[in-house]
Amino acid sequence: MKKLFTAVLLLFCIVTQAQKPTHYYVNVSTSQGSAILRLYNETPKHRDNFVKLVKEGFYDSLLFHRVIHNFMIQGGDPDSRYAADRVQLGNGGLEYKIPSEIQSELIHKKGTIGAARDNNPAKQSSASQFYFVQGRKYSQAGLDSLEQFRMQGKKLSPIQRQAYSTVGGTPHLDGNYTVFGELLTGVEIVDKIAVVETDPFDRPLKNERMAMHILTRREAINLERENNGLQAKDDFFTKLFDSFKSKYYNVQ
């Protein structure tokens, strides 16, 4: 009986330890709908900072304060939470910056999230301000022209050309800002917010607010299962195992 109990306990520990998501996921709610954001593990400093702020409720009730159609929608200025109408925003932030984590394979395709920054030479990111990429689709001739004139002769990779001619995005931002995640669902909210009427400073005339929360461990596991073509798990034993673990988790 003792050996059986030990074996069951060992199996229980193995199962519960194995149930861990590979990424952090954020639910982004707006007046235009909701989206699920996956944060990249390849940019751990930006990932962990963003998770920390979301858990603290930092982004709840902030505005998308800068919106440019066929380009991007930007938010994360803490001054926007209680800002009066028509006030110019975009200069608020936290007292620290995030070191650059720019990587050539993480590009500004439509639906990605990038970190805003000022003109500091190290390309360090704002600790709080971010943007969702909308951009547009390019023809191959359009990309040739972009290389020649906007990118001063720098050549796009085959991966960039494929993405920007099919999904779309903002290729001229690549190499200048850190991209640290992408929307898995709800990309249409970017399109909806990007076309709202704005003032001369690109602030929407009607406030577009946001709220965010981190998906729980089980929500993240089930999301990953579904993305891999498997059924979400919500049976009795799954709930039993989950009851012994925190609903939150760490990604290394």
From TrEMBL:
Keyword Repressor set for record? no
Give the enzyme's main class according to its UniProt record, as a single word.
Answer: isomerase
EC assignment: 5.2.1.8
Q: Which residues form the PPIase cyclophilin-type domain?
A: 33-206
Q: Where is the signal peptide?
A: 1-18
Is Isomerase a UniProt keyword of this protein?
Answer: yes
Keyword terms of this UniProt record: Isomerase, Rotamase, Signal
Q: Which GO terms describe its molecular function?
A: isomerase activity
Q: Which family does it belong to?
A: Belongs to the cyclophilin-type PPIase family.
Matching PANTHER family? PEPTIDYL-PROLYL CIS-TRANS ISOMERASE-RELATED, PEPTIDYLPROLYL ISOMERASE DOMAIN AND WD REPEAT-CONTAINING PROTEIN 1
Name of the featured protein: peptidylprolyl isomerase
